[in-house]
């Protein structure tokens, strides 16, 4: 249960009510984070615009890799909703259940490519020790990513950290998107 209850639907501005209604039609319910973000209509609208920019086909980091990185960020931040949603997005993009289940053990698993390992390592560094990242970390990323891709990946990681921390802090519950066994809060580092 979220730590902050939704306001009555009529208390949200019309454009937020429209968005919540659309979620209800698409997912069968309003997703818990939307009730929370809806309390800040302008911020929520800005976040949705930013999310739409990340989801463009021309974005330098593809959907499957963004979803994989997002699962790991969600695990590290303890956001069950985000693990649920991003595992669903990864399975939809790639259909690789074994990889989705093994994200917390990416260092020891042979399922991950060098590019995925670089992205997951960078996601962990930015999430856990951002102020202590060594300058050669970018040089290691350059083996797999262009500078534009590194910038795009870092922007995505920052966005996902904001979202996961917000949802975890306010207790946004899972929706049940993904029936992956053991998708809970794996925080192995």
Automatic annotation (TrEMBL):
Q: Which GO terms describe its molecular function?
A: peroxiredoxin activity
User: What would be one Pfam family of this protein?
Assistant: CMD
Q: Does the keyword Oxidoreductase apply?
A: yes
Q: Which UniProt keywords apply?
A: Oxidoreductase, Peroxidase
User: Carboxymuconolactone decarboxylase-like domain: which residues?
Assistant: 61-125
Q: Which PANTHER family match?
A: 4-CARBOXYMUCONOLACTONE DECARBOXYLASE FAMILY PROTEIN (AFU_ORTHOLOGUE AFUA_6G11590) (PTHR34846), CYTOPLASMIC PROTEIN (PTHR34846:SF10)
Q: What is this protein called?
A: Alkylhydroperoxidase
Please name the source species: Ectothiorhodospira haloalkaliphila
């Amino acid at each position: 249960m979220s730590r902050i209850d939704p306001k009555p639907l009529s208390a949200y501005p019309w454009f937020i009510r429209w968005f919540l209604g659309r979620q209800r039609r698409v997912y069968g319910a309003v997703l818990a984070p939307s009730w929370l973000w809806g309390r800040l209509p302008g911020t929520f609208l800005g976040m949705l615009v930013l999310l739409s920019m990340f989801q463009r086909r021309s974005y330098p980091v593809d959907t499957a890799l963004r979803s994989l990185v997002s699962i790991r960020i969600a695990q590290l931040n303890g956001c069950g909703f985000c693990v649920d949603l991003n595992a669903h997005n990864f399975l939809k993009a790639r259909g690789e259940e074994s990889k989705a289940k093994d994200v917390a053990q990416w260092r020891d698993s042979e399922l991950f490519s060098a590019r995925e390992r670089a992205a997951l390592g960078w996601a962990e560094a930015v999430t856990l020790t951002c102020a202590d990242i060594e300058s050669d970390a970018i040089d290691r990323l350059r083996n797999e990513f262009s500078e534009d891709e590194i910038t795009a990946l870092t922007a995505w990681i920052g966005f996902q950290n904001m979202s996961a921390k917000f949802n975890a802090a306010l207790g946004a519950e899972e929706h049940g998107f993904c029936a992956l066994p053991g998708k809970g809060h794996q925080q192995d580092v």
